Amino acid sequence: MRYAVVIEAAGNNYSAYVPDLPGCIATGASLEETEESIRQAIGLHLEGLRADNLPIPAASSHVDYVEVAA
């Protein structure tokens, strides 16, 4: 599966969340650490949904960049 992930600068660290998996979040000191943390968080989140016999949400978010005049 492939989910969209949003990573944002948060002062001295980074935070990440998955729009299609409410409550699935992670933080890290660097982009690389945050990416690894959110991968682990997604795995744990999906594992928890399966354990509770809940449906796995389909990846439905669309991510793109929009250019605007400065």
Tell me what the structure shows.
With 70 residues, the chain is α+β, with helices and mostly antiparallel strands. The protein has a domain at 6-51: Double Stranded RNA Binding Domain. The protein has 1 helix and 3 strands. It is flat. The model has no long low-confidence stretch (mean pLDDT 96).
Question: What's the short story on this structure?
Answer:
The protein is of the alpha+beta class. Helix content is 30%, strand content 20%.
**Which fold name fills CATH's third level, the topology of the domain at 6-51?**
Double Stranded RNA Binding Domain
Helical stretch count? 1
Roughly what percent helix? 25-40%
Q: What's the helix-strand series?
A: EEEH
Name the strands of the widest sheet in spatial order. 1-2-3
The description of the largest β-sheet is:
3 strands, antiparallel
CATH architecture of the domain at 6-51: 2-Layer Sandwich
Beta strand %: 15-25%
List segments where confidence is low: pLDDT < 50 over at least 5 consecutive residues.
Answer: none
Number of strands: 3
The whole-angstrom Rg is 14 Å
Alpha-carbon distance between the termini?
A: 36 Å
